[in-house]
Design goal:
441 residues; alpha/beta; N-utilizing Substance Protein B Homolog, Chain A; Alpha-Beta Plaits; Rossmann fold; 3 domains; nine-stranded mixed sheet; 17 helices; globular
């Protein structure tokens, strides 16, 4: 009977292979495979899969050195298995002998018994020749990003590209958002402390609480009752920004899974009549579930925000939140599969989609109203360039640059239009914000 360790590594290899060769998202691949592993081992499964993909290019450079003849397409899962073994040896510091024996057995678990000897030989050679000490030679292996992302960041952020890449390769902390309608961030931090859960606050972001170590949501005090939500601190800026200056009819145009919708209602004190829109019907249900947990309600519609003729009632909105679809290049540290799944051509396609959403939604905004544009991207093509192009073509649009508080400027880079938070700044994700106000004629 195979050990649980071998099975865990075999399943990890299947997950990594599903991302690298089948184009699945890491979250989806984990969700479809982790039930095969005992609950107590699932955190280790995630650590191995996420870590292996964070360091994919360096690991594969080593695999390419170890395998003289490329494996057949149907056996490429062994490449993923070898990468996982190397990750454990080098970065998890698991004893070599344990990694080798469990990984060799995992090859048999994967129904590749004839390749078990190859796995054994490769791992033993890696240890024997101390290959981990050999410096990486290609930019992709040095920075563990594809060349196109490295080059785009060099172009967009010539002074910061290295720090962005380093932040992308770090593990992200778990941020919480205290429900301001029920408790302050300080009150919730004290509540955590009573249960020996260590957390800190971010003074510039009033509702944000950062855990010293991640926790399952079911272990968060008051989560089921809606006292707190999981949301990165940078994402929390949207709710504070918009709720401060708008009331009445507000549209969250790309609302799923509902984090920003919930935050707006928490801060709205009953002033906001929210329409939460999302093109995906299943994801729209997640908005309803999240709002119900928080004790709020909104009009929730599954529809395409770029086609208002299909859902708009002709009544203008005082505020619009457009958390636009993007490359998600600002949240790579949470989703390392983005580095593998995105393509250079995606940027032009996404910029076109973002502009189409802006063009469709701008006429729905009343005079004097504010549209807050947000992305979790650090690429200029999706952020500053999009905003510059839109404002150049709309004489009734001007930037409303009054931030939720003055201290928050310390976290943001001022752009020609809008503000950028870079990944890793104050341990936050990368986000871009630009608020456009419609002139009163």
């Amino acid at each position: 009977m195979a050990s649980s360790g071998a099975k865990l590594r075999a399943v990890s290899a299947e997950i990594v292979d599903a991302v690298t060769h089948q184009g699945q998202s890491l979250d989806a691949a984990v969700a479809s495979h982790e039930t095969r592993i005992a609950a107590k081992d699932r955190s280790l499964l995630r650590m191995i899969c996420y870590g292996s993909l964070r360091h994919h290019w360096q690991l594969m450079a080593w695999v390419d050195q170890l395998i003289e003849k490329p494996l057949r397409k149907r056996d490429r899962v062994i490449n993923a298995l070898l990468a996982i073994g190397l990750y454990q040896i080098v970065l998890m510091r698991i004893p070599d002998h344990a990694v080798v024996s469990e990984t060799v057995e995992a090859a048999r678990q994967l129904k590749r018994p004839k390749l078990a000897g190859l796995v054994n030989a490769c791992l033993r050679r890696f240890v024997r020749e101390e290959m981990a000490k050999r410096p990486a030679t290609s930019p992709s292996a040095i920075w563990n990003h594809p060349d196109w992302i490295i080059n785009t960041l060099k172009n967009d952020w010539p002074e910061d590209w290295q720090s962005i890449l380093e932040a992308n390769n770090a593990r992200a902390p778990m941020w919480l958002r205290a429900n301001a309608s029920r408790n302050s961030a300080e009150e919730y931090r004290e509540r955590l402390g009573k249960e020996d859960i260590i957390a800190t606050l971010q003074s510039e972001i009033p509702d944000a609480v950062k855990l010293a170590e991640p926790l399952a949501v079911e272990n968060l005090p008051g989560f089921a009752e809606g006292d707190v939500s999981v949301q990165d601190g940078a994402a929390q800026i949207a709710g504070r920004w918009l709720a401060r200056i708008v009331s009445g009819r507000v549209l969250d145009a790309c609302a799923a899974p509902g984090g920003k919708s919930g935050h707006l209602l928490e801060l709205g004190d009953g002033r906001i009549n929210l329409l939460a829109l999302d093109v995906d019907a299943a994801r729209s249900e997640s908005v309803a579930d999240n709002l119900a947990r928080l004790g709020f309600s909104a009009t929730i519609v599954a529809a395409d925000a770029s086609k208002p003729e299909e859902w708009w009632d002709k009544q203008p909105f005082e505020g619009i939140l457009l958390d636009a679809p993007c490359s998600a290049s600002g949240v790579i540290r949470r989703h390392p599969d983005i580095k593998l799944l995105r393509r250079p051509s995606d940027l032009a396609r996404l910029a076109k989609l973002q502009m189409s959403l802006l063009e469709a939604l701008w006429p729905l905004l009343q005079e004097g109203g504010t549209l807050l544009y947000a992305t979790c991207s650090v690429f200029a093509a999706e952020n500053e360039e999009t905003m510059k192009a839109f404002t150049a073509n709309h004489s009734d649009a001007f930037e409303q640059d009054l931030l939720p508080n003055n201290n928050i400027r310390d976290l943001m880079r001022r752009m020609a239009v809008g503000y950028q938070i870079l990944p890793g700044t104050a341990d936050l994700d990368g986000f871009y914000y630009a608020a456009l106000q419609k002139k009163v004629s």
